[in-house]
Amino acid sequence: MLTARNLTKNYSNLQVLKGVDVTVNKGEIVTIVGSSGAGKSTLLHLLGTLDTPTSGEVFLHQENITRLKGKALADFRNRHIGFIFQFHHLLPEFSAIENVCIPGYIRGHKKAEVKERAIFLLETLGLKDRLDHRPNQLSGGEQQRVAVARALINNPEVVMADEPTGNLDSHNARELHQLFFSLRDQFGQTFIIVTHNEELAPLSDRQLVMKDGRIV
């Protein structure tokens, strides 16, 4: 489903990625692990089109997404890729349901349909009684579940998660990883997860171990 070929990334004279090849199949949960500075987040950002490679290509369903620019790239990302970050990046002035709806409104779906799906996702994620709560009224685990719902609102084919359990305690971290498997089974979602969590990473379908800018 998603394929990367010979990805490199340079920042001035520093080469962060040194020719990385990746293939991820539909419905897989893949973790990317390795020490700090190995290139994990850089690789995730290239796969998710948040950054551009110095060289190499990324394909999603045979479409070369590294060639997309500007509005075409933004539209593609909005339709096909969801993102979850260590810091939830929820907008503090909006409620949980409003935060979840925003990507759906950007895509141009009817507001009633977006809100209906947002309610469904939040209820699926155990937040039925938190729809109108703002982020500062939610626990860390609840905020991350809102971020998961937001990532899923446009039914993306792949969800990219960068250290999603980094700010959670061990109980909430285990719950979130189990949630990813439940969502994969329920919705057929594909997950690519960067993590330092040595307990939870082996629970994925496959681990990609990075060292010095390469997959080893």
UniProtKB/TrEMBL annotation:
TM annotation in the entry: none
One Pfam family matching this protein: ABC_tran
Keyword Nucleotide-binding among record annotations: yes
Domain (ABC transporter) ranges: 2-216
InterPro entries xref list: AAA+_ATPase, ABC_transporter-like_ATP-bd, ABC_transporter-like_CS, ABC_transpr_LolD-like, MacB-like_ATP-bd, P-loop_NTPase
MF terms (GO), sorted A to Z: ATP binding
Keywords assigned: ATP-binding, Nucleotide-binding, Transport
Family: Belongs to the ABC transporter superfamily.
UniProt name for this protein: ABC transporter ATP-binding protein
Organism in which the protein naturally occurs: Chitinophaga horti
